[in-house]
């Protein structure tokens, strides 16, 4: 059976979501606590010019994965709302990581048992 590039690098869809959520949360913290202070306290806007688009792309990617989970994986709207709200709050994505890890583990058990 052929696997997609995404599956080869990220594993299951839940693992893919968890990886992107972690990177999005990390990029948000870099933007808030590194790039923005450099821009406004040291007059160095280059960091925001680099980190901002990366964070924006990761946020959009996360949103696309959430929509995909809602449509093709049958997740609840509350599941999607929780993830997107966590993406807007600093550090919240890391608190949500435990739930996302449980989904990865559950998906792994389904694959083994299925």
User: Total number of helical segments?
Assistant: 5
Structural class by SSE content = mainly alpha
Shape: elongated
What number of domains?
Answer: 1
Oligomer: single chain
Q: Taking all residues together, what is the mean pLDDT?
A: 87
Radius of gyration: 16 Å
Distance between the termini: 16 Å
- The helix-strand sequence is HHHHH
Largest sheet: none
Number of strands: 0
Strand content: under 5%
Unreliable stretches covering 5 or more consecutive residues: none
Helicity, in percent? over 70%
Describe this entry's structure for a reader.
The protein has 114 residues and is mainly alpha-helical. It has one domain (16-105). The chain is built from five helices and no strands. The longest helix has 29 residues, at 13-41. It is elongated and about 50 Å long. The model has no long low-confidence stretch (mean pLDDT 87).
Secondary structure: elements and pairs:
Elements: H1 5-10, H2 13-41, H3 46-71, H4 77-88, H5 92-113
Helix pairs in contact: 2-3, 2-5, 3-4
């Amino acid at each position: 059976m052929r696997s997609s590039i995404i599956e080869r690098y990220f594993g299951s869809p839940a693992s893919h979501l968890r990886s992107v959520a972690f990177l999005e949360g990390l990029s948000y913290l870099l933007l808030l606590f590194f790039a923005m202070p450099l821009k406004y306290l040291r007059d160095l806007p280059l960091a925001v010019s680099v980190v901002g688009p990366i964070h924006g792309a990761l946020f959009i990617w996360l949103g696309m994965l959430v929509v995909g989970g809602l449509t093709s994986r049958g997740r609840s709207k509350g599941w999607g709302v929780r993830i997107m709200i966590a993406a807007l709050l600093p550090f919240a994505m890391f608190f949500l990581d435990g739930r996302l890890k449980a989904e990865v583990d559950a998906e792994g058990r389904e694959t083994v048992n299925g």
